[in-house]
Structures
1.
Amino acid sequence: MKSFIPVITSLLLSYQFVSAQSPTKEPVLKTPSLPVSSRVDSIITPRPRTSPVALAQYKSTNMYIRVVYGQPLKRGREVFGVLQPFGQVWRTGANEATEITFTKDVKFGGKPLRAGTYTLFTIPDAEKWTIILNGELGQWGAFSYDPSKNTLTVDAKADIIKETYEAFTIKFDETKAGADLSLLWDKTKVTIPITFEK
């Protein structure tokens, strides 16, 4: 019996030595055969937007209004009636639909409006625009526009101005009763009065 112990021990040691010498095969994962630069560039370098995100703000002691919108450029094109057809719902900018936030209740175009955030759609026409505040947020363009979600609609006069706005611009001008919200692009200006308690 004692003579078997050294034999068994030497067999075990030989097996461990042979096992250690033969490498185990790991599963090989195959990756697409793209150049390294292609894979890295697609992660590191996002494509810049043709129409940048812009911000218009009105601030006072008791009121804050913010508009976030995509800012398209004219680039030699005829804008209203051609690029943006008359009578069709527009996102009022580019990319995501424009959103407007009010920190307090206001009168927007003469109609009462509760504080909150709304999507700002418009329907341009030659002489007047329909301004729409819609309750469905986070929309891309006006493709999913749902008129049943409208909170408020008002009409506003479309004025032709001397100055040409290359970039679509939204701005505020303070008034005695509150502020005017102006939409400007090419030679068109549309103004909506906003009134509130100061």
2.
Amino acid sequence: MGFLHLFIVNKSGGLILHRPLGPSAPKINTNDWLRIGSTFHSLHAIAAEASPVKLPGNKNPGENRVYVLYFELLQSATYIAVRIKVCSSHLVCCTSINTTNVLAGADDGIEEIEGGGVILKCLQTRTGIKFVLTAEPGTADLDSVLREIYVLYSECALKDPFYELEMPIRCELFTLAVDGLIERLESGGVKSR
């Protein structure tokens, strides 16, 4: 059980960071990463708009609804089934606002995808930046790891005088901080904030 990849997508759908987080992470070339980032951004936006609304006669308003979608990965002929948890302020799957949503601020779109032996978890900030983490099934507490990475981004990348918003992140301090966080979590040491 471990972390595979981290990618960060800006509010216009451009990939601003991608990095493997473990030795078992599949090798993906840069062009495919750019496609993955923009495709995820598009699917996230579509899911926020096309998700089902809460029906007035629903007897289980807090019940999570899971939808199975089929999509093509990287223009291959292989299709996989995935479970997607879509969340919106009008959705059946949303319960009440919690600390994750207060910190992140955006609760529309894809939050989690499970399928093909991978879990994909997304945290969208109030400014529209999406932090996406992929991990092996059974990896614990992906939400808090994403929040911690968001804090590291705020502390390291945004305070770098040479970093421009919406541009690729080339901040060594951020990279070292993320690597340290992942190493600490995988060694079972200190828990994230």
3.
Amino acid sequence: MDVSACKPCSLISTCSECTKNGCFWCGTTQDCFDQNALVLSHSYGQCIQWTGNSEECSLLDCPSILTCDGCLLAGPNCGWCDDGSGTGLGHCMYGSTNGPAVWNEERNAYEVDFGLCPLASWYVTSCPACQCNGHGFCSNETAEEESTELLKCLSCANRTTGAHCERCIEGYYGNALNGGVCTACECNGQATHCDPFHGQCYCNTKGVSGYNCDKCEQKYIGDPRNQTCFYELTVDFVFTFNLNGEDDAHITRINFVTRPPKENTDVSFKLTCTGLLNSQGKVNLTVFSGAFGNNRLRRFLIGSACHEVERRFSAEEFLFGTDANTTFFVFLYDFKTPMIIQISFAQTPSVDWMKFFITFALCFFILLVVAFALWKIKQRFDLYRRRQRLFVEMAQMASRPFGVVQLQLTPDASQFRNPRPIAIEPCNDYRAAVVTFAVRLPTGGQKFVPDGQTGLAVASALCTVTPAQLAQLQTPPLVVQRKRKLKRPSCLFLSSS
């Protein structure tokens, strides 16, 4: 820490520097002292008012106070010197009940000096009855009736207002106290009034911003220094603006712009305003189009009530599309917040019912034709699959083993007593076999079987097979087979079908 930068409190001569260094400033003696040295430095009670806060320095500095009542409230070391005009103009000075004073460095005290202000114009305990800050006068009749109180100014000049002409009128800003000047708000025509002390404009148009209402917000286009700002709408969308925030307290108007991009399609406009009664505002609708000839601007709505507005613009009357540059301007004004605004531009083609039903019938007929064609294709495919399956079955049947059997249908007693099987199918373990016989069915006492019935049948039975019979089932060599006749296997009929 740089010790040389530290300055003793007694050597500081200004209130702001004194309080910033952790010292106390005495407004009565206009000197700086240490926090613990009030009694030592002002042992006789010379310091009546002091502070350690830099924000309170102006209250202890008599010359910086602009009003008489503020001067007298600052403390006994301040007094008001009236200029004698009767308008309330004057100066706050250091002094006491004896008169205005000036600081004497040699004596380290204030000395009365009437050269600064005549005694007749010096006020310490009360103020002149008429306090108009130099912008007006009070009537004599009022002064006599209310001599113990501050009088009300009859009229305020210099763009001031108030009971004592103490502030600027709307549209102007500045400090009107003690002859101060009020300056017109510089808002580029986008606001009716501004902050009365600093001059920051309260923009009336939504989308206009800046200290002087000189620029457009994001999503807004235009130049508020010459014209205004517009919110660019997209066709076929519904936009909702909820103007109920603190930033919207001064909003009284909003502007929109859009360009329909579709050719040969009508434009539908809809606007709905929801707000307090009798505060929904008015709307103007202007269209710029090359179809109007030399006068390309045409107004379709002028001062219409913004409650629920609907309008349709025919494509036969206007030239819509990106190349036509037909532009719609919507101006909504004279409303009060809170307010909810819904606005939309739509290019939805109208329904041609004749074309709709013709197209519907044609599509339905085509759908039926396609369904019938698919059904026929499915039939052909199913037939193809059945044929293929039949071919496979026939091929499998043709590949099975088969033999030729000769049947003797003439009566033969030996054959009836000892029939021979036409096929023997042994089981897996060769202990049994399925034996098949050709059976002649009874005719019911007639020579031939009745019509529609068969006289022959194939009967099968599950029979046990003995080893001897099993040996006969084995196929002998071709030479032996010719010389030896196969014996009939004897079997036990277990079942038949």
4.
Amino acid sequence: MAISNFLNPSDEERDIQDGTPSEDEILQEVIDEHLGLQQTQDDDEEELQERSLHSVKSARQALQVLIEFTEEQEALQSDYLRGLERLEFTLEALDQESRVQSTLDSWIT
């Protein structure tokens, strides 16, 4: 293979000479871009589905760790601790609201 053919393939020379892409090339670029964009949106949706939802119980456990850490630190102000305790109270209220009252029939049978 000659170096001139390697450096300047005939396909590229034709594109350079034309200066403008053909309608088929433009259409293909638009299709590729659209399909690529659609793939990106699908990937985002998959990531949202893969992301696990945290339960109130796990949130309360994590919050308890933060409260214990805040209590151990002398440098943190008590305002932070009070804010975390308010959040803990709110999570407890959410937990209570999410519970469903059932009948005793399920226990008997």
